[in-house]
Amino acid sequence: MDGVAARSRRVLSLCGRLMNEVVSFFVFSLLDLLDAALCLAFKVSDFLAEAEWKPCYCSASSAREAIHGAAGGEILVSERGESNIVCLSSGGGSGNVNKIRLDQVSDTLYTRPSKLQEVSESIKRLYEKRGKERAAKAATMFAVDSAVVEMLQGRMVRKQPHPIRRWSDCDCEDCTSWASRRRRSLFVKVAGAKGMSEKPREDVLFIHGFISSSAFWTETLFPNFSDSAKSAYRLFAVDLLGFGRSPKPSDSLYTLREHLDMIEQSVLEPYKVKSFHIVAHSLGCILALALAVKHPGSVKSLTLLAPPYYPVPKGVQAAQYVMRRVAPRRVWPLITFGASLACWYEHITRAWCLLACKNHRFWELLTKIITRNRIRTFLFEGFFCHTHNAAWHTLHNVICGMAGKLDGYLDTVRDHLRCDVTIFHGKDDKLIPVECSYSVQRRVCRAHVKVIENKDHITIVVGRQRAFARELEEIWRKSSG
After folding, report:
1. pLDDT of 101 higher than 80
2. Which of 86, 184, 220, 307 pairs with 73 at a CA distance of 20 to 30 A?
3. For 22-32, what is each residue's pLDDT tens digit?
């Protein structure tokens, strides 16, 4: 009887997976068509609202030649290993005048085949053997989308982040106040031992995850730290570039370098932070690792929550591999469907931002009236307060684009940093599997992984904030001792 039951479960599971595949194919094929239609609709709307055609990532253009910009400068694109290097120069001749390097632009921004194309390619690979010459040619090919080129051309002319918002972005005070400030810096919430004159024993930097904000920490952990911790530690929670109340420049590519530079300019430099602990969630874990590698002697402890680390097999393009792991284009489970929409469909996600983010004040008010629950309200606030440009580029250039560099970051943490590494992961996390944390531990053997039962990507903190605050205090105490 047990054997029959086991076979029945296997058959039902197989049928479920097959149904998921079939339904996903048709659903995402329709979404491909919808995204193409929305592309045309937004181009017309952009022209009517802003009197110019705005670039998008629907088609890639070759960048083997220098592309001449409107300012008489040029944009040179090359490839070095895993990193795409973009150089801007405003002078002629050798091109070394006023050169700016912008790297870490992920090809997943503009190389996202439709569902039908992807299936066709899979079928081709079954019947076709690729020669070494063809494979080598594919490996050396590098393209950059015209949208990247136009953004960089604009930056060459302006030299500063573009403060003018898009018509489809929110125009409320919280979302636009940064444009009127003389100094471009992130929104930073400081708690604990405040003040530039005080000398707290230690500093702690909190980095939130994707489409979130500093409220993820300030509304949960900060009120639950003990009095002794509040007097001993200076706590910094930032809104990342493009999120919450931080600047949202419309011409930024939101690369890892831009995010790190803003953290340094907004926290480490003005507050004279010399050594610090880092607590990071999801996307923030990638920034935390990069920051630790950049400041190896300054980091006292590294606490990562649900790190999105997917070891990339040899010979596989890292960014494309991670995009398909994070967003496999399946309708079930629902969180996978949501991630797939966010990764694959530029114009559908822009339509969502137009509906939700531009009108976030209405949705926040409605949420407060319906739930009367502060926890849910601040989560909605973090979810809505961003621009499509920021979310789209951060997702591709940081989560996908940095996939090829994470092994090196983790090796540096293992070999050159002495700090303690602690990883928390919810066992029920459907967005980033627990295996990601164990993969980090296999790379950094001293890392300690704590899997929390009955918790997911959000409830790893929300709902257990008091217990987690005590766990963090213990980590910091041991690291200091």
Report:
1. no
2. 184
3. 999 999 999 99
Domains and CATH numbers, the chain: 61-158 (no CATH), 173-480 (3.40.50.1820)
Predicted pLDDT at 225: 97
Q: What's the pLDDT band for 172 if we cut at 50, 70, 90?
A: confident
φ, ψ (nearest 5 deg) of residue 337: -60, -45
Question: What does the block give as tokens for 375?
Answer: 């926890």
pLDDT score of 253 more than 70: yes
Least confident of 59-73, 374-388, 435-449: 59-73
Is the pLDDT confidence value at 457 over 70? yes
What single letter denotes the amino acid at residue 266? S
Q: Pick the catalytic residue from 250, 266, 282, 437.
A: 282
Hey, which residues does 143 pair with through a beta bridge? 62
Burial class from Cβ neighbours inside 10 Å (0-12, 13-18, 19+) for residue 396 reads buried
Dihedral sign (CA 243, 249, 255, 260) = negative
Q: Are strands 67-68 and 188-192 parallel, antiparallel or unpaired?
A: unpaired
Nearest to 151 by CA among 262, 94, 75: 75
From the list 24, 208, 251, 281, the catalytic residue is 208
Q: Judge whether 439 counts as a catalytic residue.
A: no
Q: What are the Cα distances from residue 366, in Å, to 349, 370, 376, 377?
A: 22, 6, 12, 9
Nearest-angstrom CA–CA distance, 251 and 190 = 29
Cα→Cα distances 149→92, 118, 219, Å: 18, 26, 40
Q: Is 208 a catalytic residue?
A: yes
Q: Are 31 and 348 in contact (CB under 8 A)?
A: yes
Burial class (CB within 10 angstroms; exposed 0-12, middle 13-18, buried 19+) of 5: exposed
Taking residues 153-172, report their average pLDDT.
Answer: 66
Model confidence, pTM: 0.86
Say how many residues make up the chain. Answer: 481
User: Among the options 429, 437, 456, 479, which is catalytic?
Assistant: 429
Q: Is position 457 annotated as part of the catalytic site?
A: yes
Cβ atoms within 10 Å, residue 163: 17
Which residue in the list 277, 281, 347, 457 is annotated as catalytic?
457
